[in-house]
Write a structure and sequence with these properties.
Blueprint: E1 4-20, E2 23-37, E3 40-45, H1 59-70, H2 80-86, H3 94-112, H4 116-120, E4 126-128, E5 130-133, H5 139-152, E6 156-160, H6 167-177, E7 183-186, H7 196-200, E8 210-211, H8 219-226, E9 233-235, H9 242-251, E10 256-259, H10 261-264, H11 267-280, E11 283-286, H12 293-303, E12 335-337, H13 350-355, E13 357-364
Helix pairs in contact: 1-3, 2-3, 5-6, 9-11
């Protein structure tokens, strides 16, 4: 049974600035939840950013909604499944839901001696790894960064794009590294439907996909865009649940889906989206939110499911951090190993985690 829950706030620097169409990140403000009881600790990592730029959620807001509305719903016998049912009446706040659901799920799986991968239905022991390349100051610098990741062994390159930094960077990468490079782009909602003819010019570069070119609420507009652009359309920010995923596929708004557990409320919902797409033969891949090893371990378990046929953003620890909060995930032959231990299968380095922790608040459960 659960005896207490801790909220841990910490801070970690990135090895280099990460620039997207909506801003630049140089560090991560971290929020972890620890669910404790019977000598077992389950861990969850909140993926929300410091500011509400990728989505309406941000890490301080997640902590507030967890404290006021979600943690009071947790009792000593609460499970991940019962928690998910109990918060259905809370609109939105998917990332807050996800961090607590994950900690509860990790806790119960550790107690049962079952890995998260086994629980979800993983069929792979290693996951193909891609890397997300932020917007660079110049094309020359972009080519240098891409070369470095290719030398590291990454099997797929994703380029962040925005208006004014799209066709020429993509052309330069494709020309320099050839047609065999698995290449895709991510706009993070930076374009409008009126840009359709411009975006169609990306078709010449034989991309795997264009990710989330239009604002997240414009699912119908993505369906219109897909009639103009031949490159497969992939949705990210728009997909908040299995119901939205179904409607997006039915309407032709996308033919590929990026599944981010934090964005959809947790791994239980993420699996439902995977199962829907797998049944329909729709390719999915696992996106990343600059997670530390705690969140990365859980994502690898998800990415080991059979429907994840495209390399995801499950990069090695060294891509983002000089030192991770867990044992580092290391790229080998373009793959990362899926943890096999109970729960997420990996434990944090508590000495290091404590050294970057700002505060820890504990809630003792009495019922």
């Amino acid at each position: 049974m659960i005896s207490s829950i801790r909220l841990r706030r910490a801070h970690i620097d990135l090895v280099s600035p990460f620039r997207t169409s909506f801003g630049v990140e140089t560090a991560r403000d971290l929020l972890y939840i620890e669910v404790s009881g019977d000598g077992v600790i389950g861990w969850g990592e909140c993926v929300a950013m410091s500011e509400p730029m990728y989505s309406s959620e941000y890490v301080d807001g997640c902590e507030e909604v967890l404290r006021r509305y979600m943690l009071p719903l947790v009792h000593r016998n609460t499970t991940a499944e019962s928690f998910t049912d109990s918060v259905r009446g809370i609109r939105g706040h998917y990332m807050a839901k996800a961090v607590l659901e994950t900690a509860l799920l990790d806790f119960q799986l550790r107690r049962n001696g079952m890995s998260l991968g086994t629980f979800l239905g993983a069929t792979q022991t290693r996951v193909r790894s891609g890397v997300s390349v932020g917007i660079q100051p110049s094309i020359d610098e972009l080519l240098s960064v891409v070369q470095g990741y290719i030398d590291d062994g990454y099997l797929r390159i994703k380029l962040k794009i925005k208006p004014g930094f799209d066709l020429e960077p993509v052309r330069a990468v494709r020309t320099t590294f050839g047609d065999d490079l698995l290449l895709q782009v991510d706009a993070n909602s930076a374009y409008q439907l009126s840009d359709a003819e411009h975006l169609a010019k990306l078709d010449q570069f034989n991309l795997l996909l264009i990710e989330q070119p239009l604002p997240e609420e414009q699912v119908a507009s993505h369906a219109q865009l897909a009639k103009v652009v031949r490159t497969p359309m992939c949705l990210d920010e728009s997909i908040l649940s299995v119901e939205v995923a179904r409607e997006a596929l039915d309407s032709g708004a996308c033919s590929i889906i990026n599944i981010k557990p934090g964005r959809v409320g947790g791994y239980l919902e993420a699996k439902k989206i995977h199962d829907l797409c797998f049944e329909r033969g729709v390719a999915v891949w696992c996106g990343g939110m600059l997670e530390t090893g705690i969140g990365r371990a859980a994502n690898l378990a998800l990415a080991a499911l059979p429907g994840f046929t495209l390399p995801g953003d499950t990069s090695a620890s060294a891509r983002y951090f000089a030192r991770d909060v867990t044992s580092p995930f290391i790229l080998r032959d373009g793959h990362l190993d899926v943890p096999t231990g109970p729960g997420i299968g990996i434990d944090p380095d508590l000495d290091y985690l404590d050294s970057i922790t700002d505060r820890v608040d504990e809630i003792v459960l009495t019922k």
